[in-house]
Each structure stands twice: as C-alpha cells, then as structure tokens.
Amino acid sequence: MKRIVPLLLFCSLLSAASAAPPNFVLLFADDLGFGDLGCYGHPTSLTPNLDRLAAEGLRFTDFYVTSAVCSPSRASLLTGRYQTRSGVYPGVFYPSSIGGLPLNETTIAEVLKPLGYATAAVGKWHLGIGKNGMFLPTNQGFDHYLGIPYSHDMGPCQNLTCFPPDVKCFGTCDLGTVTVPLIHDKHIKQQPANFLELEQAYSDFATDFISTHAKKGQPFFLYYPSHHTHYPQYAGPTAAGRSLRGPFGDALFELDSTVGNILAVLEETGAINNTLIFFTSDNGPELMRKSRSGNAGPLRCGKGTTYEGGMREPAIAFWPGKIKPGLTHEIASILDVLPTVASLAGAQLPKVILDGVDMTELLINQGQSKRETMMFYPIDPTEKYSLFAIRLRKYKAHFYTRGASHSSTTPDKECSLFTPLQAHDPPLLFDLDADPPEHYPLSLEGRADLHAVLEEIEKIKQQFEASMVFGESQISRGKDPNLRPCCNRDCSPKPECCRC
C-alpha cells in the first residue's frame, strides 16, 4: 500500500504536467447594449452563434465595464486595472494623439508570452498609435495585429464604403483628418480601409491564426475587439439586409458570423475543448443615434453615463466540458479577465496593484464571485470628484449623476446632455435586484439597515480613493497632426493624399 500511494501521486503529477495549456479567445464588441443580443431578449437581433455560446456556456446578468467610453474600458480589460491607474482618461484616443497605453502596463498578452503562447489582435485597438507606432499591439505583447487602430468613425465617412455601393453612409463623422487605415502588424496595408471586405479579412486572419497554432500544438491567445456595432454601422455583402433591425442588426449579424467562423475552426482543429471563449462589450449603446443605435434593455441610459445602461454589459463564458451551461447573477467585471486567464494558464501576475479578481471558481463551478463591489468612474474622472457611484452587493449608491451627449434623444431626461452634474448627499441608493432601471431611489426614513449599507459603502469609498494613485493622463498629453497615420509620408497635400 505504501508503494501504491506514491505511484498514484506520481501519475497524477505526470498527468497534470502533460495537460495542454488552455487557449483563450477574447471577443469584445463595441457600443453593444445589455439588451442587444437575442439571448438577452432582443426580438429581432440575428445572433445565432452568440446565442449558442450563451445556451451552452455561462451567461452573466451583472457584468461591468470600467468606463462608459471605449479607450478606458479597453485599457482595463487588457491590464486588470482601473483606467485611472494607467492614465487612459479622460475620454478616448484620436488619430493624432501623442499618448497611448503606457508600455510599462502589462497586458494579458504579455502575461501569457513567457509561457510560450502565440498572441494576436484583430480589429479595433484604440489604445494609441504614437510616434513610429510605439503604442500598437505588437509593442504590447501581441505577435501579430490586423486592424484599425482607433474608431472607424475617426475619419471622413464619405470614404467608408457601404453595401449596396450606391447607398451612402449615414453621417459625416470626423472631417479634416486622414482616411481610416488598415494596419498589419506595424505597417499600413490599405488606406482607406475597404469596409465591404474588412470583416472577411478579420475572419480569415483570426481563423488562420487559430488553425496554424492549433496544428502546431502551441497554446494561443486571440483578442478580437470588433468595430461592430459602433456608429456608423456597416456590413459586407454576406450580412447586409439579413437582419430585421436594419444597418445595426446587419452589423451585429456580421460580428456574429465571424464568431461562428472562429467556433468552426476551433471545432475543425479539435481545439475547442481546450479553449475558453469570453465575450462582452466595451460600454453601453450610443442612444443619441435613436433607432440606429443599440439597446440597453431594461437598464437606464447608455454610453457616456454611470447609470447601469452605460456600464453593465452582456457577457458570456464558453468552454465545453469545463463550463456548464447556466446563468449567474454574481458581480463580475472586465477587470477580472486578466487574473482569471493568468490563473487558468498558470502564469505569473504583474507586480502591480490589480483591481481584478480571479473568476475561476465562478466560471468552472458556478460558485460565488470574489467581487462584491464595483466602482463607477465618469468618462472624465478627476481626483476632486473621483467616483460617481459604487455598487455593493445588490445596492448601488450614486454620489453624482450626469447626462451625456452619447445618451441624448431618449425620453428619460436624466440621460440627456443637458442634464448637468448633480451631487447627492446622501447618495441616491437603489436595489438593483428589484429595480435594475434605477427608477426608484430607496427611502432611508426609518431604515436602519439601509443607513448601515450607506455607511459601509462610504467606508469602502474612502478606503478605495485613499489607495488610488492617478496615473498621468495619456489622453491629455495632446495631439500632433504629424502622428496621423499616412501610407505616403512625403505626399502633399495632406490629409487628402494619404491613400494607398
């Protein structure tokens, strides 16, 4: 018997050592609302592949981003840290921005690289370009990159091709700057990008990357931050006109089709049972576009605000044989992706303050989340105002509220650009389990239990703000027109001549 126990232990260790490291596919939509997917209740969205992930995986009801606009959320997703630490605030990066995600920040790709992972990003980067492309993904831990380095509306929209070709795109977007470039690794491949063919190029790049490394037996990490469903919505010939929702629905269907292609290649290569797929979005819907925008479902307001519609997102975790189908009401965040990936891969965490927690127990066993709180920063955080709201378990306290241009045009006046900053003392307190739309502040009169909740939240707020050291703002470093990407550097006159 004494010989059998060491032998069993040896076999167990040998089996663990020989187990292949898991692969990771991180899917990140753009301006997608809580109510936009079929699996989250939208009646006319065409999202069969995302619906499959939700049906066969774990669907979240209480998943949060860290900002109601894109660049800060992307920084938090890749670093596991609030954007105030990395300096990715206020607002977002532009084609001529001097700054970017600091190179001393550690991304998920950089966490995985020492373990021999192949890494690739495809789609919308929006964490800066910088001089000589210093902030592009290939300098942030990614072996390869194909995509547009910022939002696709940050260029003249008359050059954004729509389908059918005789239909003009809606709006003008940003005039007076260069047309939108498609970058491969560090070099401009096409300018302006051909949006009729873009999603197919992304799909081919993603599936080729997976196929190549799955056949090699090399673990991989694919990060796919889609342009869909950010304004202006577009779709190529295989998706245009397919949805009952019009251009928005077509764009969403095109994103879903790429997800389907990724699933297909994972199944064909046999890698699907060893791959965690995680899907979410960067912030809530841009409601100012009316019916051409996304949908926050039952949640209040959308992009640009710290109401639930701006920062609570659909999220799905899928891993056949590892994650059981189910629904979780536990609180989780994009901050938690990096620690979870590191835990599952056996990688070392960055030696910095992390705001994320490991979700492994929640994902694999549908257990309790390690996260009880979520902090809500405005899109322009300052040390003076700092946090606008805090969620603690089922309660959310608003210290400040404010509307936003991105959420204007809705019937709710609290969402409007013309609703100014309002301080609340005591804070507005909502029970999000009973009132997800945040319509009915709880009365504190005669409620010792709610006073105790507010005292606990106030203590958490003081401790958190005392520990938060704001990084130097990278977005406030300014702009340099010479940094705008141009495939013909010496051409004239700019920006019109930047074409290839």
Can you walk me through this structure?
The chain is α/β, with parallel strands linked by helices. 25% of the residues lie in helices and 16% in strands. The chain has helices spanning 4-18, 48-56, 70-79, 83-86, 108-112, 195-216, 247-269, 308-311, 337-345, 360-365, 448-467, and strands at 23-29, 58-64, 118-122, 144-147, 182-184, 187-190, 220-225, 275-281, 312-318, 326-328, 332-333, 373-376, 389-392, 395-401, 422-431. Strands 1, 2, 3, 4, 5, 6, 7, 8, 9, 10 and 11 form an 11-stranded mixed β-sheet that branches. The chain starts with a helix and ends in a 33-residue tail after the last helix. Mean pLDDT is 94; it is low at 1-5 and 8-17.
Helix/strand layout:
Elements: H1 4-18, E1 23-29, H2 48-56, E2 58-64, H3 70-79, H4 83-86, H5 108-112, E3 118-122, E4 144-147, E5 182-184, E6 187-190, H6 195-216, E7 220-225, H7 247-269, E8 275-281, H8 308-311, E9 312-318, E10 326-328, E11 332-333, H9 337-345, H10 360-365, E12 373-376, E13 389-392, E14 395-401, E15 422-431, H11 448-467
Parallel strand pairs: 1-7, 1-8, 2-10, 2-11, 3-4, 3-7
Antiparallel strand pairs: 2-9, 4-5, 5-6, 8-9, 12-13, 13-14, 14-15
What is shown here, in short?
The protein has helices spanning 4-18, 48-56, 70-79, 83-86, 108-112, 195-216, 247-269, 308-311, 337-345, 360-365, 448-467, and strands spanning 23-29, 58-64, 118-122, 144-147, 182-184, 187-190, 220-225, 275-281, 312-318, 326-328, 332-333, 373-376, 389-392, 395-401, 422-431. With 500 residues, the protein is α/β, with parallel strands linked by helices. It has two domains: 20-371, Alkaline Phosphatase, subunit A (3-Layer(aba) Sandwich); 376-475, Arylsulfatase, C-terminal domain.
